[in-house]
From TrEMBL:
It comes from the Bacteria. The keyword Nucleotidyltransferase does not apply. It holds the Pfam family adh_short. Belongs to the short-chain dehydrogenases/reductases (SDR) family. It comes from Saccharopolyspora flava. This is 3-oxoacyl-[acyl-carrier protein] reductase. Keywords: Oxidoreductase. GO terms for molecular function: oxidoreductase activity.
């Protein structure tokens, strides 16, 4: 069960944190993994972890908001791994410690900063999906897993309106893709993560953390296990869904 032998996965934003956990988990089940990150060194670190565990991975450093770079990066990954990407995990985002996620009350945000969170969370995902779909359709099989957040469906008073807007948009996009591509053997689902172990920089998450029923934040292994199922051959009858992985936190 959950055997990915012969499959090639691309995980974006996989240089660290949850993305690295997703890449490691897929490789642990037999997938060859293209590890994307904007930073080559981080991508290489995750590849080294996978290889040390007996898996196979190559770094794929490109900016998901640059369509030409995505096309070139996916093509190179396919060449390096000897096939076509048939599992896509869209996880790329803006870590709070290296970029401006647009945190703060919307009324105070400079309009010049509105685009970046939306471009990476929505258009970055679109670029990757558009690039891998032809190969998946030709193969008659594919898995698209979009990483999102409860902030895409729940209004929060903690200054994440721009982030939530991007996530809301991409969840709608994935629902439409699931319907368009289901006849071709391609599933598309959303995994909405709750508060993760690396969260908290840039905004106050203490209130959210205190309300998690399981009493802890999520970790990379939690995210990796869920992605393995959603991307697996066994999940062929699950598409167009948003799955909350959040320690039991309620979404509305």
């Amino acid at each position: 069960m959950f055997d990915f032998t012969g499959h090639i996965a691309l995980v974006t934003g996989a240089g660290r944190n949850a993305g690295a956990g997703m890449a490691r988990a897929l490789a642990g089940q037999g997938a060859a993994v293209a590890v994307n990150d904007l930073d080559l060194g981080r991508a290489e670190d995750t590849c080294a972890q996978i290889e040390q565990a007996g898996g196979r991975a190559v770094p794929a450093p490109f900016d998901v908001t640059d369509l030409d770079a995505v096309r070139a990066g996916v093509a190179k990954a396919g060449t390096d791994l000897g096939g076509t990407v048939d599992v896509l995990v869209n996880n790329a985002g803006i870590p709070a410690d290296i970029g401006d996620m647009g945190y703060g009350p919307f009324r105070d945000l400079d309009p010049a900063k509105w685009r970046t969170p939306v471009e990476i969370n929505l258009f970055g995902a679109m670029n990757c999906v558009h690039t891998v779909l032809p190969g998946m359709r030709e193969a008659g099989w594919g898995r698209i897993v979009q990483i999102s957040s409860g902030a895409g469906r729940v209004g929060l008073g903690m200054g994440v309106a721009l982030y939530g807007s991007g996530k809301s948009g991409v969840e709608g996009f994935i629902r439409h893709i699931s319907q368009e591509e289901a006849p071709a053997g391609i599933t598309a689902n959303v995994l909405a993560l709750g508060l993760m172990s690396n969260a908290g920089r840039g905004t106050d998450t203490s209130g959210v953390a205190a309300g998690i029923p399981t009493g802890r934040r999520g970790n990379p292994e939690d995210a990796g296990a869920a992605v393995v199922y959603l991307a697996s051959p066994e999940a062929s009858w699950l598409t167009g869904q948003t799955i909350d992985l959040n320690g039991g936190s309620q979404t509305r």
